[in-house]
Design brief:
Number of domains of chain B: 1
Largest interface: A-B, 37 and 35 residues
Order of helices and strands of chain A: HHEEHHHHHHHHHHHHHHHHHHH
Distance between the termini of chain B: 44 Å
Strand content of chain B: under 5%
Number of helices of chain A: 21
Radius of gyration of chain B: 21 Å
Order of helices and strands of chain B: HHHHH
Largest sheet of chain A: 2 strands, antiparallel
Number of strands of chain A: 2
Number of strands of chain B: 0
CATH topology of chain B: Helix Hairpins
Structural class of chain B: mainly alpha
Structural class of chain A: mainly alpha
Oligomer: heterodimer
Largest sheet of chain B: none
Shape of chain A: globular
Helix content of chain A: over 70%
Strand order of the largest sheet of chain A: 1-2
Number of helices of chain B: 5
Chain lengths: ~500, ~120
């Protein structure tokens, strides 16, 4: 059975406009509705992946170059699954965690609006529609960062909003340039025109605009200034969503789609990606080591781990453009995309454990915590699993994707890049040992002697993500699962049949 | 030439965002950037002496819809894009201004050099 693609946008969008009507007394119903919506999305996205459904949906039956179309291919399906997993876990976590805030239905409304925006971005088949969905997700996330309305939150929200709006304007300017030169907005037709006519100066300028704009959205160094303020200031489930999927769907996915499927890879563009990736990896991790705020430390690690994803994809682009063996390009891109989904699982788990600790102790400063291993054994276990995964310790999922990136770098002859990758992984391990030491080991401070372990939905959502951290190595190691989930996504980027597929499918 | 002026307006907005210290002026900088982009999009579809690309009953029956009609009419698509972009920027402007007001309530100032609790 074909699933109508607009459902992925329509379900969260409809629910998000229903939930604000519930007041303070009936907010239980609103929470239930929101959870049902995210569960539906999870089921739908797993179904789409298992059946291997691909296709296009023409809104209002307008044929392709004229109307709006939604496209589902391997890469979109992988991103949909990632968004659904993280939003399901974060929504489950919010049931208890958001009780401390006053306006829970409004929070649920913004949350679902953000989810529908992200689903729209990954499904959209034309460039302006992508911009509209990107703005829906961004505006919802600006409001969610400032949700607490305290000093720090408002400041972070303003900073995020200014940089985010500047990024959006860059993207819109690029879209205008592309439309002016090619005369169409549809991804497939732009790509067809570029393949026959080649890039001219105007299109290079547009590509530069896109790299700056999406780089700002993805918080790649040197465009990262907003992330370490914005992500820690949001409520914990929203930090998990922002770090887990928002920077990927809005930033990396859009950038990769535009570079690989529309403009086509070339050696300079590949090296730009590799440079951005290496800078983010190294600078992000060294800034992270010195942090004493738990969530701020995690936010800097997000920058560093996004660097891995961009590096993997960038190595793939360089190898493809050099015309070497495409098997190594596939390997590098496989590593990058696998790290993308792994990072969203373990980073959202880490943010959820930080939320659990903050709810129980009222603090997230590492120096004020300590000795929580006995008081919060469950949270401690989850945090240890996620830390091992992010540091790349086998058999957790982070190890496999980092191994793939290192292998691909060595095979393609970039020994320096492989060495940097391993070194950054080591520094990551050091900073998470610091977290373990200061939060869970050592002496318990006097005022924390009464803390209680988190229970119920919070424990469940963390448990689900921790199980995923352990079993996700199978996505790579077990052939049938890999062919179903990861390989189609890699093929979309390596083979570059996007435009001919879509033009022939209509 | 006109496109270059558009880009100049965009750069003026960017300069305003990067240099100004007052929150409201930063918001105005973003608005100037939005206007520059909207102007650019509108100019993409402009033709001097163009006609509206609307086919009524008379034109259809008299067979006026041909290549010359398409050559003479302005491109309607950028106008639709600009309408959408204006609505989006209205939404984000409202949010930005409300965040500014809330920040003023907390800090008692619009000066971003004094609103600095986050660092590291």
């Amino acid at each position: 059975m074909m699933i109508p693609l607009p459902l992925f946008v329509a379900i969260p969008l409809t629910t998000s406009f229903i939930v604000p009507f519930f007041g303070q007394k009936t907010k239980g119903i609103a929470t239930l509705l929101a959870n049902i919506a995210t569960t539906c999305l999870l089921v739908l996205s797993i179904y789409v992946l298992i059946t291997g459904q691909t296709g296009i949906y023409q809104l209002g039956k307008w044929s392709i170059p004229i109307g709006i179309n939604l496209v589902l291919d391997g890469l979109s399906a992988l991103l949909l699954l990632t968004i659904s997993i993280v939003s399901f876990a974060a929504m489950l976590f919010s049931i208890q965690y958001m009780e401390q805030y006053t306006a829970k239905p409004k929070y649920l409304c913004l949350f679902l609006l953000m989810v529908s925006g992200m689903n729209g971005v990954v499904l959209s088949g034309d460039i302006f529609n992508m911009f509209v969905f990107l703005e829906i997700a961004s505006i919802a996330s600006y409001a969610l960062v400032g949700f607490g309305c305290e000093h720090e939150e408002l400041e972070a929200s303003f900073k995020y909003m200014v940089l985010g709006s500047v990024a959006s304007m860059f993207i819109l300017f690029g879209i205008g340039l592309v439309y002016g030169i090619t005369g169409t907005l549809n991804f497939a037709y732009i790509s067809k025109i570029i393949q026959s006519a080649g890039l001219n100066n105007g299109l290079y300028f547009a590509l530069g605009m896109f790299i700056v704009g999406f780089g700002l959205k993805a918080a790649l160094v040197p465009f990262h200034a907003w992330l370490p303020d914005a992500h820690p200031s949001a409520p914990a489930p929203i930090s998990a969503m922002l770090s887990g999927v928002l920077i990927k769907a809005l930033g990396v996915y859009a950038l990769v789609r535009i570079i690989f499927n529309i403009f086509g890879v070339s050696i300079p563009i590949g090296w730009i990606l590799v440079t951005l990736g290496v800078l983010s990896m190294v600078i992000g991790v060294f800034l992270a080591v010195g942090q004493w705020d738990f969530k701020r430390l995690l936010a800097y690690h997000s920058i560093s781990q996004m660097g891995y994803v961009v590096l993997g994809v960038g190595i793939g682009a360089v190898v493809l453009a050099q015309g070497k063996d495409p098997a190594w390009a596939s390997l590098a891109i496989l590593g990058g995309l696998f790290h993308l989904i792994n990072h969203s699982v373990f980073k959202s788990l880490l943010f959820l454990t930080s939320g659990s600790i903050e709810l129980s102790t009222g603090s997230r400063q590492l120096k004020q915590l300590g000795g929580l291993a006995e008081k919060m054994p469950m949270t401690r276990t989850m945090c240890t699993i996620a830390s091992a995964a992010i540091a790349g310790i086998p058999p957790f999922n982070g190890f496999w994707s980092k191994l793939l990136i290192v292998l691909a770098a060595v095979k393609a002859g970039f020994y320096g890049l492989a060495a940097v990758t391993v070194l950054v992984s080591l520094v990551t391990l050091i900073s998470f040992l610091k977290v373990q030491r200061y939060v869970f080991l050592g002496d318990l401070p006097e005022k924390l002697s009464h803390v209680k372990e988190s229970k119920g939905s919070m424990a469940w959502s963390m448990g689900i993500l921790a199980c995923l951290c352990i079993v996700m190595g199978l996505f790579l190691l077990w052939g049938p699962l890999r062919d179903q989930i990861l390989t189609p996504a890699v093929q979309v980027l390596v083979q570059n049949l996007y435009s001919s597929d879509i033009i022939s499918m209509q | 030439m006109l496109y270059a002026m558009c880009f100049l307006l965009f750069i003026i907005g960017l300069y305003c965002v990067l240099v100004k210290k007052n929150m409201v002026k930063i918001v105005l900088g973003i608005v100037i950037m939005e206007y520059a982009v909207n102007l650019f999009l509108i100019m993409l579809g402009y033709r001097s002496g163009g006609i509206a690309p609307i086919v009524g009953q008379d034109e259809y029956t008299s067979g006026l819809v041909d290549a010359s009609f398409i050559q003479a009419s302005v491109d309607p698509l950028p106008q639709a894009l600009v309408l959408t972009a204006i609505v989006i920027s209205l939404g984000s402007l409202a949010l930005m201004i409300s965040i500014c007001i809330r920040t003023y309530e907390r800090y008692g100032t619009f000066d971003i050099t004094q609103i600095r609790r986050l660092k590291g």
